[in-house]
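Hey, can you fold this?
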Amino acid sequence: MRPLGKLHERWPWADCFLTYVQHFDVICCKPSTQMQVLRRAIHSGGQRLGEVIPVSQIRAYANLIPRFGQRTDSRLMSFNSSEHCHKFFLNKYFDKNTYFSLTL
């Protein structure tokens, strides 16, 4: 997204693009896959923790795989699984740069 300012007025955000990002907490590392398990960070009121930041602050993207557990939620579809899931695997095998940066 890009903020719009007042017409005919110069302002510091004129050439800045923004994005919304969500925060995740690292829970553990699953030994069988060697992938970290992440959980959505939430406020005490239950809302997701996220913020709007400049795109220039993004260093790398992350590929997240929904972690379903023993029972799968019946609401899950291919287009909404990232919205209804609360736990994810951080896919370090997505590309070689991610793999080398996350492998010890």
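Oh, and this one too while you're at it.
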Amino acid sequence: MSLRFEAGLARELAPGDSVAVSGVCLSAVDPSERGFTADLSPETVARSSLGSLREGDAVNLELPLRPSDRFGGHIVQGHVDGVGAVEQVSDQGGSREVRLSAPPGLLRYVVEKGSVTVDGVSLTVASVDGDGFAVSLIPETLARTTLGTAGPGRPVNLEVDVIAKHVEKLLRP
């Protein structure tokens, strides 16, 4: 499967460069001034929500971190672990709390006040239980990402903390 994205940041891409599309690390194919194409493997389609995109759908785009850049947030690789869904959205003044479902196998890596990536956006977990978790979105996040228009039922790409996964593997007997 191939997808074409129209975006100004494509001017910064060379063929083969990485770019995160709603949290999924893809390789740019045929970048131009106006956009780029990306090929999706069957694994990418199975593990992410990108296969359900339709023409005109908005996505979050982000270029990779350069070694000289400031590191603010947590390690986000663009290696999506699974798909969750928006369950509930509640306004809290200028902010918004979003409750998300997540596959049980991923929830063990989600901890209150820890980090999680939702559609490529690094967020702090506000609360977590056996069925899912909640995040609080500030006005800046609402304005600059697709999470500002997310409503119940919308699928989202989830990436959990890679350090937690490595620690778990190292501690396994």
